[in-house]
Design a protein that fits this description.
Oligomer: single chain
Structural class: alpha/beta
Strand content: 15-25%
Number of helices: 15
CATH architecture of the largest domain: Alpha-Beta Barrel
CATH topology of the largest domain: TIM Barrel
Number of strands: 18
CATH class of the largest domain: Alpha Beta
Helix content: 25-40%
Strand order of the largest sheet: 14-13-12-9-8-7-6-15-16-17-18
Length: 431
């Protein structure tokens, strides 16, 4: 069998050692100079017979770890087909509900149009429950139902919308032996103990809550009234949720301003118990309007937080285990007015909607739905990219917005791509 070097092999120096990484197998190898020379010679000559003759164990190891593969394998097509399987997995349905587009904050970076009097009607609420019953009864092979609340600020209508939907769907899934989990993206201001007890009893077991830097920076952006910041109340509510055994992803929105003294945030979580700490994960994300290059600062902050014993998400685009929720066929986002979308990272305007929910609990999808589902892997630069198994060409939203135009979600920056891999190694060594 003729072998070739995988196009997903990446080589770099780390701590004066030569490292090889394969982004498909997610395997790292530290190479001594002789082995690196033998491997490099084989790559240059596109012939690994000498390597097999001189070091059979290393040759077989490279095959085992995915660095050498059959010449007949189309690696791009392999990643594409695996992604298609993931995106068409019918064993899970993910429903996202926006009870409102209104919010009790006005953050400068928010991409959404806040609609003051927007509220999900009882008719739409009932239609969502009907939709869920239809999915559970008709979706072949379904094993799990995931419910998420988004917005706007969903907790503005916790009692009038969320409680009804959450309790009904939890009960429907329990009755039909379908695994159920739920989560919510919220600014965290309106959380209290009664709310958390209801959530816990109905399997709403995860929250995403945002901080905008340390106390001083956050309170400049998110304040209840002039001179009355929200930071302390939100931090206490994060701790309270962890105390109730609800997982909290603390999303830190990063800009050149919020990176200032960002490590101060940990001072406000230093007193929590080890058990409560296990329910908190920090996730640093750059706000999309930020023009300055702050990625290295963000990476340093991630490692600092980990050194202090806190769980921290990897940087965006560094994991290949799954795809974006909006890429999946069995996912829908229902806006407060019954309009249906896929992506939640863009404004919910009617002209970008992908369907409508009718009163019978059926989604009537339009042509944008299938177009999205077939949009990925049409981008030429992805075909030869070393980190395609990690990046997967970005999400379907990237593909739609760049239709007919070559693009790279990493701006064709090969150093930035390598740095993603270096950071993965550092995280692995730090674990």
């Amino acid at each position: 069998m003729k072998l070739k070097a995988s196009k997903f092999n990446i080589f770099f120096i780390y701590n004066l050692k030569q490292v090889a990484y394969n982004s498909y197998s997610n395997e790292f190898i530290i190479l001594d100079p002789l082995l690196y020379e033998l491997f490099s010679a084989g790559i240059l000559m596109n012939d690994f017979d000498e390597l097999r003759y001189m070091h059979a164990d290393f040759y077989n190891f490279l095959i085992e770890k995915g660095f050498l593969i059959s010449e007949q394998i189309d690696e791009f097509e392999k990643v594409k087909q695996e992604s298609i399987l993931i995106d068409n997995d019918s064993s899970v349905f993910h429903l996202i509900v926006n009870p409102t587009m209104n919010c009790n904050f006005k953050c400068w970076y928010c991409y959404e149009t806040h609609i003051k009097d927007s509220k999900m009607s009882e008719t739409t609420t009932i239609s969502i429950i009907k939709l869920s019953k239809n999915i559970i009864n008709k979706q072949q092979g379904i094993k799990k139902f995931v419910l998420s609340f988004f917005g706007g600020e969903p907790l503005l209508y916790f009692n009038k919308v969320i409680k009804t939907i959450l309790a009904e769907l939890h009960n429907i899934c329990k009755t039909n032996n379908i695994e159920f989990s739920s989560g919510m993206t919220t600014n965290g201001l309106l959380i209290d103990e009664n709310l958390l007890m209801f959530c816990k009893s109905n399997c709403l077991n995860s929250l995403q809550i945002t901080l905008d830097g340390n106390r001083q920076q956050h309170n400049k952006i998110r304040y209840i009234s002039e001179g009355n910041g929200s930071y302390d109340r939100i931090v206490e509510n994060i701790k309270l949720a962890a105390k109730y055994g609800i997982y909290v992803t603390v999303r830190i929105n990063c800009s050149s301003n919020t990176m200032t003294d960002i490590n101060d945030i940990l001072n406000d979580f230093s007193g929590i118990s080890e058990e409560e700490r296990n329910y908190i994960n920090f996730d640093l994300q750059k706000v999309w309007q930020e023009a300055d290059k702050i990625e290295n600062e963000m990476t340093d902050t991630r490692f600092y937080f980990r050194e202090k014993g806190f769980s921290v998400s990897e940087q965006a685009g560094s994991s290949s285990q799954d795809s974006c929720y909006a890429d999946k066929r069995y996912q829908a986002t229902i806006n407060y007015n019954g309009e249906v979308f896929k992506c939640t990272a863009r404004d919910f305007t009617s002209n970008t909607g992908e369907g409508i929910l009718n009163e019978d609990g059926q989604i009537i999808w339009n042509e944008r739905y299938e177009k999205r589902l077939n949009s990925k892997f049409n981008n030429n630069p992805c075909r030869e990219c070393r980190i395609l198994p990690i990046c997967r060409g970005g999400c379907s939203q990237h593909a739609i917005e760049n239709e007919g135009v070559d693009y790279c979600v990493h701006n064709y920056d090969e150093e930035a791509k390598t740095q993603i891999v270096v950071n993965k190694l550092k995280t692995l060594l730090q674990a």
